[in-house]
Design goal:
This protein is mostly helical and about 140 residues long. It has 8 helices and no strands.
């Protein structure tokens, strides 16, 4: 997405919606931590760390003593976030309501339930590289 935004800085807006899959028991809590990081101006950074390390959410980081779904707290420290505030903010009922609303919206809209899901003007790109996105973006910009 960073490459897409660099190529189309004035034409593309990225919207991220939460759709934690039920069989990923750590996903809902991770989504709340990302939203809480956003309250400290670090949503994108936390989102990137979570998505890049999603397997560690299942297995933990034994060397650090973290084995559970609170692993984003470790990453929050690396991002320079106030972890006490992060923990409080992650409990905000508004985050749970937002996640439920977005999940309901997306589950009624899409046949294939997968994450992350990328859409350009309502269509999935033919590939998840810059060329795949560019094909649909250029088509939409011509309209």
């Amino acid at each position: 997405m960073d490459q897409v935004l660099a190529k189309y800085p004035n034409d593309v807006k990225v919207v991220i919606k939460n759709f934690p899959l039920g069989f990923h028991k750590q996903a809902r809590k991770a989504a709340k931590y990302a939203l809480a990081a956003g309250k400290q101006g670090k949503y994108k950074e936390m989102y990137h760390i979570i998505m890049a390390n999603y397997k560690q959410l299942k297995t933990g980081m034994p060397e650090s003593g973290w084995y559970d779904t609170d692993l984003p707290v470790v990453w929050a420290k690396e991002l320079g976030l106030d972890t006490e505030k992060l923990l409080r903010d992650a409990q905000d009922p508004a985050f749970e309501a937002l996640i439920k609303w977005e999940s309901n919206q997306l589950s009624q809209t899409f046949e294939r339930k997968s994450v992350p899901k990328f859409l350009v003007a309502g269509k999935e790109p033919p590939s998840r590289d810059l060329d795949g996105f560019s094909l649909l973006i250029d088509e939409a910009l011509k309209k």
